[in-house]
Design a protein that fits this description.
Structural class: alpha+beta
Bound molecules: coenzyme A
Radius of gyration: 17 Å
Oligomer: single chain
Largest sheet: 4 strands, mixed
Shape: globular
Length: 216
Protein backbone atom coordinates (compact mmCIF):
# COMPACT_ATOMS: atom_id res chain seq x y z
CA UNK A 1 0.00 0.00 0.00
CA UNK A 2 1.25 3.45 -0.96
CA UNK A 3 1.12 6.13 1.73
CA UNK A 4 -1.75 8.41 0.65
CA UNK A 5 0.52 11.47 0.50
CA UNK A 6 2.82 9.72 -1.97
CA UNK A 7 -0.10 8.84 -4.29
CA UNK A 8 -0.67 12.53 -5.14
CA UNK A 9 -3.26 13.81 -7.61
CA UNK A 10 -5.63 11.30 -9.17
CA UNK A 11 -4.69 10.74 -12.83
CA UNK A 12 -7.36 10.61 -15.56
CA UNK A 13 -6.80 6.88 -16.14
CA UNK A 14 -6.37 5.91 -12.50
CA UNK A 15 -8.44 3.55 -10.40
CA UNK A 16 -7.41 4.06 -6.80
CA UNK A 17 -8.53 2.25 -3.67
CA UNK A 18 -8.02 3.33 -0.07
CA UNK A 19 -8.06 0.64 2.62
CA UNK A 20 -8.90 1.59 6.18
CA UNK A 21 -8.52 -1.31 8.61
CA UNK A 22 -10.44 -0.39 11.71
CA UNK A 23 -11.44 -1.60 15.10
CA UNK A 24 -14.24 0.92 15.50
CA UNK A 25 -16.84 -1.84 15.05
CA UNK A 26 -15.44 -3.57 18.12
CA UNK A 27 -15.47 -0.29 20.08
CA UNK A 28 -18.09 1.81 18.34
CA UNK A 29 -17.31 5.36 19.44
CA UNK A 30 -19.24 7.05 16.62
CA UNK A 31 -22.37 5.91 14.77
CA UNK A 32 -21.56 4.23 11.46
CA UNK A 33 -22.88 6.99 9.14
CA UNK A 34 -20.81 9.60 10.99
CA UNK A 35 -17.66 7.47 10.82
CA UNK A 36 -18.15 6.73 7.11
CA UNK A 37 -18.75 10.40 6.34
CA UNK A 38 -15.51 11.32 8.07
CA UNK A 39 -13.55 8.68 6.12
CA UNK A 40 -15.02 9.83 2.79
CA UNK A 41 -14.21 13.48 3.47
CA UNK A 42 -10.66 12.61 4.52
CA UNK A 43 -9.99 10.70 1.29
CA UNK A 44 -11.90 12.86 -1.19
CA UNK A 45 -11.04 16.39 -0.02
CA UNK A 46 -7.42 16.40 -1.29
CA UNK A 47 -8.58 14.97 -4.64
CA UNK A 48 -11.05 17.85 -5.10
CA UNK A 49 -8.76 20.53 -3.65
CA UNK A 50 -11.10 21.52 -0.83
CA UNK A 51 -11.11 21.02 2.90
CA UNK A 52 -13.08 18.02 4.27
CA UNK A 53 -15.78 20.32 5.67
CA UNK A 54 -16.28 22.05 2.31
CA UNK A 55 -17.22 18.87 0.43
CA UNK A 56 -20.82 18.63 -0.67
CA UNK A 57 -22.48 15.28 -1.42
CA UNK A 58 -25.62 14.45 -3.37
CA UNK A 59 -27.57 11.18 -3.65
CA UNK A 60 -28.98 9.57 -6.77
CA UNK A 61 -32.56 8.23 -6.72
CA UNK A 62 -31.54 4.91 -5.13
CA UNK A 63 -29.05 6.32 -2.67
CA UNK A 64 -25.78 6.25 -4.62
CA UNK A 65 -23.70 9.15 -3.30
CA UNK A 66 -21.72 11.53 -5.51
CA UNK A 67 -19.67 14.71 -5.12
CA UNK A 68 -21.36 17.96 -6.15
CA UNK A 69 -18.19 19.62 -7.47
CA UNK A 70 -17.30 20.13 -11.13
CA UNK A 71 -14.53 17.74 -12.19
CA UNK A 72 -14.76 15.66 -9.00
CA UNK A 73 -13.99 11.95 -9.34
CA UNK A 74 -16.55 9.18 -8.96
CA UNK A 75 -16.28 7.15 -5.77
CA UNK A 76 -17.89 4.27 -3.95
CA UNK A 77 -17.50 2.89 -0.45
CA UNK A 78 -18.06 -0.43 1.26
CA UNK A 79 -17.81 -1.00 4.95
CA UNK A 80 -17.86 -4.12 7.10
CA UNK A 81 -16.54 -5.35 10.43
CA UNK A 82 -12.79 -4.70 10.50
CA UNK A 83 -12.44 -2.29 7.60
CA UNK A 84 -13.65 0.13 4.97
CA UNK A 85 -12.69 0.34 1.32
CA UNK A 86 -13.13 3.44 -0.84
CA UNK A 87 -12.60 3.32 -4.61
CA UNK A 88 -12.11 6.50 -6.66
CA UNK A 89 -11.76 7.14 -10.37
CA UNK A 90 -12.24 9.79 -13.03
CA UNK A 91 -12.50 7.15 -15.76
CA UNK A 92 -15.72 5.33 -14.82
CA UNK A 93 -18.47 4.82 -12.27
CA UNK A 94 -17.09 2.43 -9.71
CA UNK A 95 -18.90 -0.09 -7.58
CA UNK A 96 -17.24 -1.74 -4.61
CA UNK A 97 -18.33 -4.44 -2.21
CA UNK A 98 -16.31 -5.63 0.78
CA UNK A 99 -17.15 -8.72 2.84
CA UNK A 100 -15.49 -10.84 5.50
CA UNK A 101 -14.22 -14.17 4.16
CA UNK A 102 -15.43 -16.00 7.30
CA UNK A 103 -19.03 -14.83 6.86
CA UNK A 104 -21.44 -17.70 7.58
CA UNK A 105 -24.75 -17.48 5.74
CA UNK A 106 -27.74 -19.67 4.86
CA UNK A 107 -26.20 -19.90 1.40
CA UNK A 108 -28.72 -22.03 -0.49
CA UNK A 109 -31.73 -20.25 0.97
CA UNK A 110 -30.31 -16.85 -0.01
CA UNK A 111 -29.20 -18.08 -3.43
CA UNK A 112 -32.69 -19.50 -4.21
CA UNK A 113 -34.22 -16.18 -3.28
CA UNK A 114 -31.75 -13.76 -4.92
CA UNK A 115 -29.60 -15.53 -7.52
CA UNK A 116 -30.36 -16.94 -10.98
CA UNK A 117 -31.63 -20.52 -11.36
CA UNK A 118 -28.41 -21.52 -13.16
CA UNK A 119 -26.21 -20.20 -10.33
CA UNK A 120 -28.35 -22.00 -7.73
CA UNK A 121 -28.08 -25.27 -9.56
CA UNK A 122 -24.27 -25.11 -9.53
CA UNK A 123 -24.15 -24.04 -5.86
CA UNK A 124 -26.47 -26.89 -4.84
CA UNK A 125 -24.06 -29.45 -6.29
CA UNK A 126 -21.10 -28.21 -4.19
CA UNK A 127 -20.03 -29.21 -0.66
CA UNK A 128 -21.25 -26.83 2.07
CA UNK A 129 -17.88 -25.05 2.40
CA UNK A 130 -17.30 -24.79 -1.37
CA UNK A 131 -20.82 -23.41 -1.76
CA UNK A 132 -20.20 -20.85 1.01
CA UNK A 133 -17.02 -19.60 -0.67
CA UNK A 134 -18.61 -19.57 -4.13
CA UNK A 135 -21.66 -17.74 -2.77
CA UNK A 136 -19.51 -14.99 -1.23
CA UNK A 137 -17.63 -14.62 -4.51
CA UNK A 138 -20.90 -14.27 -6.41
CA UNK A 139 -22.40 -11.93 -3.83
CA UNK A 140 -19.45 -9.51 -3.86
CA UNK A 141 -19.40 -9.46 -7.68
CA UNK A 142 -23.15 -8.86 -7.91
CA UNK A 143 -23.30 -6.21 -5.22
CA UNK A 144 -20.28 -4.31 -6.65
CA UNK A 145 -22.02 -4.33 -10.05
CA UNK A 146 -25.28 -2.97 -8.59
CA UNK A 147 -23.30 -0.30 -6.78
CA UNK A 148 -21.60 0.79 -9.99
CA UNK A 149 -24.92 1.28 -11.78
CA UNK A 150 -26.54 2.63 -8.59
CA UNK A 151 -29.76 0.62 -8.88
CA UNK A 152 -29.57 -0.91 -5.41
CA UNK A 153 -29.52 -4.67 -5.06
CA UNK A 154 -33.23 -5.42 -4.76
CA UNK A 155 -34.57 -6.88 -8.01
CA UNK A 156 -31.17 -6.81 -9.69
CA UNK A 157 -29.00 -9.51 -8.11
CA UNK A 158 -30.35 -12.35 -10.24
CA UNK A 159 -29.91 -10.44 -13.50
CA UNK A 160 -26.17 -10.09 -12.87
CA UNK A 161 -25.10 -13.64 -13.73
CA UNK A 162 -21.52 -14.80 -13.17
CA UNK A 163 -19.59 -18.04 -13.59
CA UNK A 164 -19.81 -19.88 -10.26
CA UNK A 165 -16.59 -20.64 -8.39
CA UNK A 166 -14.05 -18.42 -10.14
CA UNK A 167 -12.19 -16.03 -7.82
CA UNK A 168 -12.00 -13.31 -10.48
CA UNK A 169 -15.59 -12.45 -11.50
CA UNK A 170 -16.53 -13.60 -15.01
CA UNK A 171 -19.77 -11.96 -16.09
CA UNK A 172 -22.17 -14.00 -18.22
CA UNK A 173 -24.99 -11.50 -18.52
CA UNK A 174 -26.09 -8.17 -17.07
CA UNK A 175 -29.47 -6.43 -16.68
CA UNK A 176 -30.65 -4.77 -19.93
CA UNK A 177 -29.86 -1.22 -18.76
CA UNK A 178 -26.31 -2.18 -17.81
CA UNK A 179 -25.30 -2.96 -21.39
CA UNK A 180 -23.44 -5.92 -22.84
CA UNK A 181 -21.38 -8.12 -20.51
CA UNK A 182 -18.22 -7.43 -22.57
CA UNK A 183 -18.28 -3.79 -21.49
CA UNK A 184 -17.73 -4.66 -17.84
CA UNK A 185 -14.43 -5.06 -15.95
CA UNK A 186 -13.95 -6.56 -12.49
CA UNK A 187 -11.12 -6.70 -10.03
CA UNK A 188 -11.05 -8.93 -6.94
CA UNK A 189 -8.99 -7.62 -4.05
CA UNK A 190 -7.90 -9.08 -0.71
CA UNK A 191 -7.42 -5.92 1.37
CA UNK A 192 -6.64 -8.07 4.43
CA UNK A 193 -6.46 -11.78 5.25
CA UNK A 194 -10.04 -11.49 6.61
CA UNK A 195 -11.61 -9.59 3.73
CA UNK A 196 -12.48 -10.02 0.08
CA UNK A 197 -13.71 -7.27 -2.23
CA UNK A 198 -14.75 -6.69 -5.82
CA UNK A 199 -14.49 -3.52 -7.90
CA UNK A 200 -16.86 -3.28 -10.87
CA UNK A 201 -16.79 -0.70 -13.64
CA UNK A 202 -18.05 -0.27 -17.18
CA UNK A 203 -16.50 1.12 -20.35
CA UNK A 204 -13.11 1.82 -18.88
CA UNK A 205 -10.12 1.96 -21.16
CA UNK A 206 -6.82 0.71 -19.76
CA UNK A 207 -6.58 1.79 -16.15
CA UNK A 208 -3.67 2.32 -13.82
CA UNK A 209 -4.46 0.67 -10.51
CA UNK A 210 -3.11 1.96 -7.20
CA UNK A 211 -3.81 0.95 -3.60
CA UNK A 212 -3.27 3.43 -0.76
CA UNK A 213 -3.35 3.72 2.97
CA UNK A 214 -5.80 6.17 4.44
CA UNK A 215 -4.53 9.74 4.67
CA UNK A 216 -3.56 10.74 8.22
C1 LIG B 1 -26.54 0.39 -0.68
C2 LIG B 1 -26.52 -1.11 -0.95
C3 LIG B 1 -26.30 -1.33 -2.42
C4 LIG B 1 -25.35 -1.79 -0.23
O1 LIG B 1 -25.37 -1.62 1.14
P1 LIG B 1 -24.56 -2.49 2.25
O2 LIG B 1 -24.15 -3.82 1.74
O3 LIG B 1 -25.39 -2.42 3.43
O4 LIG B 1 -23.30 -1.63 2.57
P2 LIG B 1 -21.91 -1.24 1.90
O5 LIG B 1 -21.02 -0.95 3.05
O6 LIG B 1 -21.38 -2.17 0.87
O7 LIG B 1 -22.25 0.12 1.12
C5 LIG B 1 -22.91 1.18 1.72
C6 LIG B 1 -22.49 2.46 1.05
O8 LIG B 1 -22.71 2.36 -0.37
C7 LIG B 1 -23.09 3.64 -0.89
N1 LIG B 1 -24.42 3.50 -1.51
C8 LIG B 1 -25.64 3.70 -0.97
N2 LIG B 1 -26.60 3.47 -1.91
C9 LIG B 1 -25.95 3.10 -3.03
C10 LIG B 1 -26.41 2.74 -4.33
N3 LIG B 1 -27.68 2.68 -4.65
N4 LIG B 1 -25.47 2.45 -5.25
C11 LIG B 1 -24.16 2.51 -4.95
N5 LIG B 1 -23.68 2.83 -3.74
C12 LIG B 1 -24.57 3.13 -2.79
C13 LIG B 1 -23.09 4.61 0.29
O9 LIG B 1 -21.81 5.19 0.37
C14 LIG B 1 -23.32 3.65 1.45
O10 LIG B 1 -22.87 4.18 2.68
P3 LIG B 1 -23.95 5.01 3.56
O11 LIG B 1 -25.01 4.03 3.89
O12 LIG B 1 -23.18 5.45 4.74
O13 LIG B 1 -24.40 6.12 2.70
C15 LIG B 1 -27.86 -1.75 -0.47
O14 LIG B 1 -28.15 -1.37 0.84
C16 LIG B 1 -29.03 -1.42 -1.36
O15 LIG B 1 -29.27 -2.00 -2.38
N6 LIG B 1 -29.83 -0.48 -1.00
C17 LIG B 1 -30.94 -0.15 -1.83
C18 LIG B 1 -31.42 1.15 -1.44
C19 LIG B 1 -32.58 1.49 -2.29
O16 LIG B 1 -32.92 0.90 -3.29
N7 LIG B 1 -33.20 2.52 -1.85
C20 LIG B 1 -34.30 3.02 -2.53
C21 LIG B 1 -34.46 4.42 -2.12
S1 LIG B 1 -35.77 5.12 -3.02
Amino acid sequence: LLPAAAAGALAADELRVYWHPDTAHDHPAAPRRQRVDRLLRQVLAPLVGLSPAELSFGREAHGRPFLRHAGAPDFNLSDTRGGSLIAVSRAARIGVDLERVDRQLPVLRLARRWFSAQECEVLEALSAEDARVAFLRLWTAKEASCKSTGTGIFGFLSAWRFDVGTAAPRLQSAPADAGAAERWRFLRLAPSAEHTAVLALRDSTTLTFSACQFPD
